[in-house]
Each structure stands twice: as C-alpha cells, then as structure tokens.
C-alpha cells in the first residue's frame, strides 16, 4: 500500500515533460537577443506566458483528452510560478496574493492575444505585445510574426505528437 505512493504517475510525468519543453522554448536566446524581449524576471514571465498561451490554444482545438492535458499543463505552470516565488524568498503569507496577480496577468495576456491570433490581426497582436512585453505603445511586429508562425505550427500538430516530441517553435532569429 505505502509503496504505491512512490510510483511515478505516467500522466504527471508526461505533463512535466511537456511543461519543461515549453519553459525551455521560452528561454531561447533568440527571443531576447533577436526579438528584444527584456532578459529580466518580467521578460521571462512574458516569454513563458506567450509560449503557454500558444500551446493551450492548440490544445483547445484537439479532441479528448486534450482539455485534460490543458488543465494539467496550466496546473503545472501555476505550481512552477508558486515554487519560483517561494524560491525568491516571498513569504508564505504573501504567496497567495502574488499568485493572484500572476494568474490575473497570465489570463489577461491569454485574453489579449487570443482575439488578434484568431482574427489574424498582426497589428493588434503587435500592439498587445508592445504593451505587455515591452511596456510601451510601440508595436512589436517581429514578436507578433513569431507568434503567428508558432500558432500555425502548433495547430498543425496532433495530441500524440505534441505529447511525445513536444511543441515545436520557430527560430526567433528568423523574425528579427
């Protein structure tokens, strides 16, 4: 009975691997060097949020059990954010308040990026990236082109491929 507590859950391992691949893609040097995402804590959050939003969008269009994968992946993202806050020394009493802000930021970005991606509106997406990622009103056209290419590529993948080989993202340098 007690030994069952120490067995690896294959579903959890699959989600952890998928999340790790997304996080790794969000740290691609080209995102920071070529596309100019600030290499700061906030910039890293923006890059990770963007890649999570793109994968979650692709999962929404796939058949069952993609919605369960999306839920588990979102849970993994927020567990990672919680652990990161604690690792940075945020106290236990403050973590829930910070997590609420993280959740609001993440879902706000998902909402802000979803409509332009659905409408193939590069100008609106570039403006949203300019505000959220770069903190200004100048549009972020290269990042928008990167996001459109990634979105198309992810939507061409089936669930098995996404889970087995992970999401593939374009080279950021090609959009600079």
Molecular structure report:
It comes from Microvirga lotononidis. Belongs to the UPF0174 family. The protein is built from 8 helices and no strands. It is mainly alpha-helical. It has one domain (9-175). Helix 3 (41-60) runs parallel beside helix 7 and helix 5 (95-119) runs antiparallel to helix 6 (122-132). The longest helix has 25 residues, at 95-119. The radius of gyration is 17 Å and the shape is globular.
Layout of secondary structure:
Blueprint (H helix, E strand, L loop, with lengths): L9 H17 L2 H5 L7 H20 L5 H22 L7 H25 L2 H11 L8 H15 L3 H7 L11
Helix pairs in contact: 1-3, 1-4, 3-4, 3-5, 3-7, 4-5, 5-6, 6-7
Quick synopsis:
By secondary structure, this protein is mainly alpha-helical.
How far do the termini sit from each other? Answer: 56 Å
Q: Calculate the mean pLDDT score and round it.
A: 92
Query: What letter string, H or E per element, gives the SSE order?
Result: HHHHHHHH
Secondary structure class reads: mainly alpha
Gross geometry = globular
How many β-strands, per DSSP? 0
| Main β-sheet description | none
Write a concise keyword list for the protein shown above.
single chain; mainly alpha; Ubq_cyt-c_CBP3-rel; Ubiq_cyt_c_chap; Ubiqinol_cyt_c_chaperone_CPB3; Ubiquinol-cytochrome c chaperone domain-containing protein
């Amino acid at each position: 009975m007690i030994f069952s507590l120490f067995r690896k859950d294959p579903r959890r391992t699959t989600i952890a691997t998928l999340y790790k691949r997304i996080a790794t893609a969000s740290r691609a040097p080209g995102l920071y060097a070529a596309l100019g995402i600030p290499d700061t804590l906030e910039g890293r959050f923006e890059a990770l949020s963007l890649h999570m939003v793109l994968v979650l969008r692709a999962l929404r269009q796939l058949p069952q059990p993609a919605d369960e994968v999306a839920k588990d992946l979102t849970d993994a993202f927020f567990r990672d954010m919680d652990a990161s806050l604690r690792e940075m020394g945020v106290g236990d009493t403050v973590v829930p308040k910070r997590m609420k802000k993280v959740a609001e930021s993440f879902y706000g970005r998902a909402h802000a990026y979803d409509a332009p991606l659905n409408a193939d509106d590069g100008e609106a997406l570039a403006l949203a990236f300019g505000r959220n990622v770069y903190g200004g009103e100048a549009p972020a056209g290269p990042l928008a082109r990167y996001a459109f290419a990634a979105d198309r590529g992810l939507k061409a993948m089936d669930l098995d491929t996404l889970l087995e080989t992970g999401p593939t993202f374009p080279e950021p340098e090609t959009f600079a």
